[in-house]
Amino acid sequence: MTSAELVSVLSDELRDTRLVVVANREPYIHLKNAVEPQGWWARVRRQKPRGEISWIQPASGLVTALDPVMRACGGTWVGHASGSGDRAASDAKGRVAVPPDRPSYTLRRVWLSPEEEEGYYYGLANNALWPLCHIAYTRPQFNESDWHHYVRVNRRFADTVLEEIEDSPALVFVQDYHFALLPRFIKEARPDVVVCQFWHIPWPNPEAFRICPWGEEILTGLLGNDLLAFHIQYHCNNFLETVDRTLESRVDYERFAVWRGGRATYVKPCPISIDPALWSHPQKRDTRTAELRETRHALGLRNGERIIFGVDRLDYTKGIPDRLRAFDRLLDRHPDWRRRVVMVQVGAPSRDHLIGYQALSHEVSEMVQAINERHGANGWQPVLYRREHQNPEDIAALYRAADVCVVSSLHDGMNLVAKEFIASRSDYRGVLVLSRFTGAARELDEAVLVNPYAVDEFADALNGALLMDADQQTRRMRALGARVARHTVYDWAGAVLRAACRMTEVV
Ligand code: G6P
User: How far is the centre of ligand 1, averaged over its atoms, from the C-alpha of 86 (Å)?
Assistant: First the structure.
């Protein structure tokens, strides 16, 4: 489905209903006095001279997915104001029209105190729920005062949503683990409003979930939704079993619904995707060759080296040390690859206020240095690591220059890098090496699937990917490209929102 098709489907479904998205991350961040970014890949375009307000888009799969949907449908996005220039760029209510260069929807910003941000975002959301839901062997930290902030901030966002919808009919589309309590707050105040939520990360099995001290409150909050959607069936099953074991309720495994207090919450898999049109730029051969030359030049590649590429938020769920270990093992076992292949890794700093993220960032830098010392020589380095945010345009050029793209998450709800890489390859070349533990692996059968914990298997997979012949690359890429084209982010949004509207009619 294209954006235009989504608009036409939803205008039938929604008619006079207001669409409000609630997500912690705002889709556009305004910055004051932003310094021109330096660097190796200095093509960042949206920065303005010192002293003026500039804006950026954050590195978030959720934003990447939802911004095109909001551009297509219009409505209001309620999000946390996180930029130094946000106040100056918004009106007295915290509203600003976005995208700043081509307004098509409203962003309503919510300001939090440093203590609230610390407790709700860093504490409960990212130090407790994130590691609880991702099986990456990082222990969740449960802290009572974080929980109180989480409750308060959920309430604040709910009040803001209620203010935005006034007395109109509305569909509130809640995003992710930051807002487990908000659906119930909305439903209690406005039972007529349709509330649905997409949980962008995995849902763990009941055994893993039961260590959470506020499990009942979280489940009760989520059951304020008319529809709760996950990427894959497995997470839906985990959720229903968790409810079954924790709350007094009726779980209907036939219709995938939970009945409680006379109303139902339906649970449904809806895998997220991307807008392939934003990534696929069919290029003439000359343009492609020129771009490739420019990209390789910017990377300092002079010897025709092959490129293994990875781009991730610096997050311990992404398996970045594991992919470095596999690359190191590849160079050990096949020394003939030395000077013939490089790993280009972009790591976007993320949540770096938290100790676990600082430790990961440190670990990655140390590993890169050690691998470069071990296998590098005469100024040649096997790993080119940049710890920075990159523009989508620059990422796309790197996708197109890559021989292999690696996604090695230890656990991931979906992973959109995999889909972006596929959509960028209008030339049907390149190989995707993809962790089995991503939601994406359930759809993208033609990728080379790996277990990132198994270093030898992973190193073999990299070797196989580098050696894959052109025909096989094309055959796989065509099949992958067709899948991504068949199920776009607009299909995802259409499926969730349509199902939400219909399920309230059924009840
Ligand atoms: C994941 C989450 C999103 C989040 C993103 C970036 O994709 O599902 O909700 O926005 O990570 O993390 P951040 O904490 O920077 O928003």
Answer: 19
